[in-house]
Amino acid sequence: MTGKTLGRYKITGILGKGAMGVVYKGHDPKIDRQVALKTIRSEIFADESNREELLRRFQQEAQIAGRLSHNHIVGIYDVGEDDGITYIAMEYIDGKSLDKIIKDGIRLSIDQIVFTAIQVCDALDYAHRHGIIHRDIKPANIIIIGDANKVKVADFGIAKLVDADMTIGKRLMGTPYYMSPEQIKGGKYDGRSDLFSLGIVLYELLTGKKPFSGEDISTIIHNIINQTPLPPGKVNSNVPHLFNKVVLKALAKDPGDRYQTGHEFINTLRSTFKDDAGATIPDGYFKTIQKAGDRPELLEKIGLRGKFRRLLVAAVGVLLVIMSYSLWLKKREKQITPPPPTISEGYKDKSIIKMGYINVKSDPPNANIFIDGKNRGITPYLLEVSSGRHEVKLIKEGYLSWEATLEVQENETLNLFQTLKSR
Ligand SMILES: Nc1ncnc2c1ncn2[C@@H]1O[C@H](COP(=O)(O)OP(=O)(O)O)[C@@H](O)[C@H]1O
Ligand SMILES: [Mg+2]
Fold it and tell me: Which terminus of the chain is more exposed, N or C, with fewer CB under 10 A?
């Protein structure tokens, strides 16, 4: 595809591949700037019957997301179609996504993690106030430029395009690791769902482990809905204990028990960081280089134009960043920087009851499941049980009952599929 064009954009390389399609690096000759071109796989619009309607909605959603203009949000420039390929042209970010950082085994320091979370919160707070829910907050959509000095959140509102009517063949897209309980249940959800997802990212960055995991999608989903994760400080002893409450609040099952806004989450992160490290994060810390045109009134007053104006703005921006950073460093000089978290090996908390799962299916289905003599539901059913031995019995009218002793390992899912013999 390199050397080809999409609309007026020249394709210059490949940036990555996602659930929706390939993301290309491109160049906009009209404005002479680099862009990222996200293409949408044709299957997504394959259903000919409502193709036009989906395309119209897609463009409308991209338009709405395109109205967002924020320091920590990847800007959307354009949406178009060329030779049957639908694409979105957006701000090109020369950075590294958090999922690549995690995959490369890079551990961020507590400072970097907190700064990252605050910037994502800031972006979410702004978008939520503008009526846009991200819906797909996950490490792959959080791009770090430099040393977590600046974070950009990608794909605002775009994930929305592929749910509801646009699920591919009713298949859930991507992994559910970062989804909120209410999102999984398919009911109504709001910005607090994004803050839950951010809580999961924060947990993973701090501990190196996902709060809700499992061998298969149904187990992960079950855990997100039912399981209370271990406090991060118990998973990794290097995590300051002050952060336990902060993270678990974000992961509350009931949205009413979570942070209600991105701003509330920021305030808690800031004050916890201060209580832990004794240092404050200055307000201007994240306000890095302003884009030319971001502050028209001021610039008009100064009366500068064009390249020189951009240069000056950039220079002043850089200076401000250096100044606020050195000020902040000075404040922190006497503080001990917490060591970067590392995964502690084999940690187990004895006070926690260890749980496992039995995924019970039967042919035919709708058999009563008895675990240790207690009726726990009907097949097919994913049951949470304490780890260890259990008497499992399946009873269905017209069939011989089936019984066995099963051993369930901690955090593991035992798959049981039993064909029942008719009487
Ligand atoms: N605006 C962008 N600038 C630079 N790289 C990007 C941009 N958007 C996406 N990418 C890259 O393309 C990859 C695929 O993106 P995407 O299709 O959104 O899938 P996902 O977010 O699920 O990884 C990302 O992991 C990232 O590396
Ligand atoms: Mg993405």
Answer: C
Apex CA 203: angle with CA 106 and CA 381, to 5°? 120
Phi, psi of 2 (to 5 degrees): -60, 140
110 three-state secondary structure? helix
Q: In what order do the strands lie in the sheet with 33-40?
A: 5-6, 9-17, 22-28, 33-40, 85-91, 76-82
Q: Ligand 1: which residue has its CA nearest to atom 26?
A: 16
Residues 6+ apart with CB under 8 A from 420: 362, 363, 364, 367, 394, 396, 399, 400, 402
The Cα 156–Cα 88 span in angstroms is 12
Highest mean pLDDT among 116-125, 131-140, 330-339: 116-125
Angstrom distances, CA of residue 16 to CA of 100, 155, 168: 11, 14, 20
Cα three-residue angle 40-42-43, rounded to 5 degrees: 110
Beta bridge partners of 35: 26, 91
Ligand that comes closest to the CA of residue 90: 1
Percent helix, percent strand, percent coil in the chain, to nearest 5: 40, 25, 40
Q: What is the pTM of this model?
A: 0.67
Q: Give the pair of three-digit tokens for residue 86.
A: 């639908």
Q: Parallel, antiparallel, or unpaired: how do β-strands 33-40 and 22-28 relate? A: antiparallel
Q: How confident is the model over 105-112, as a mean pLDDT?
A: 88
Answer yes or no: 136 catalytic.
yes
Place 56 in a pLDDT band, splitting at 50, 70 and 90.
Answer: confident
* CA 403 to centroid of chain Cα atoms: 42
By alpha-carbon position, which residue is closest to atom 12 of ligand 1? 16
